[in-house]
Amino acid sequence: MKRLTPESALKKLVLDYLAAKRIHVRRNQVGMMDVGGRKVPFGEKGEADCTAYVPTYHVRRAFSDGSTCKMFFILHLEFKAPKGVQTAHQKAWQADAEARGEFYLLVRDLDEVIAWLDNHA
After folding, report:
1. Matching CATH number, 6-120, of 3.90.1150.10, 2.130.10.10, 3.40.1350.10, 1.10.390.10
2. Taking the model in full, what pTM does it have?
C-alpha cells in the first residue's frame, strides 16, 4: 500500500469531504514534463493545489422552462503539512486571486475547510 505524506493525506481527506458535499473541485498541476528530451513547463507557477466551485444559491430566471442559474464562490485551496510554508510564488498567486475577488484558503486541517464553508456557503 502506498504511503501518503501528511500533505497528500490532507488533500485526499478534504477532496473526499468536498465530493460528499457535491462541491466540484478541479485539481491544478504545476511542474515540468520531459517531451522528446526537452523540459516543458506546465501550469502556472505558484498556483493553488485545487480550485473549488462552492455553490451559494440558485437564482430563478425568467425563462419559460423555469430553469435556474447557479451562483458560486471560487475557492482556491493550498494544502500544507503542519510546518509547511508558502513559497514567494504561492504568496504572489494568492494576492492575485484575492485581487480578482476569489477566495484562497491555506489548508492545514479539514476543520478549516468546514468552517469556511459554514461561513460562506
Report:
1. 3.40.1350.10
2. 0.82
How large is the C-alpha radius of gyration of the chain?
Answer: 17
In terms of residues, how long is the chain?
Answer: 121
Give the model confidence (pLDDT) of 65-119 as tens digits.
766 667 889 999 999 988 899 999 999 999 999 999 999 999 999 999 999 999 8
In 1-121, the DSSP E strands lie at 24-27, 31-35, 38-42, 50-60, 68-79, 103-107
DSSP state of 108: S
Residue at 17: amino acid letter: Y
Q: Would residue 19 be called left, alpha or beta, if left means φ above 0 and alpha means ψ between -120 and 50 degrees?
A: alpha
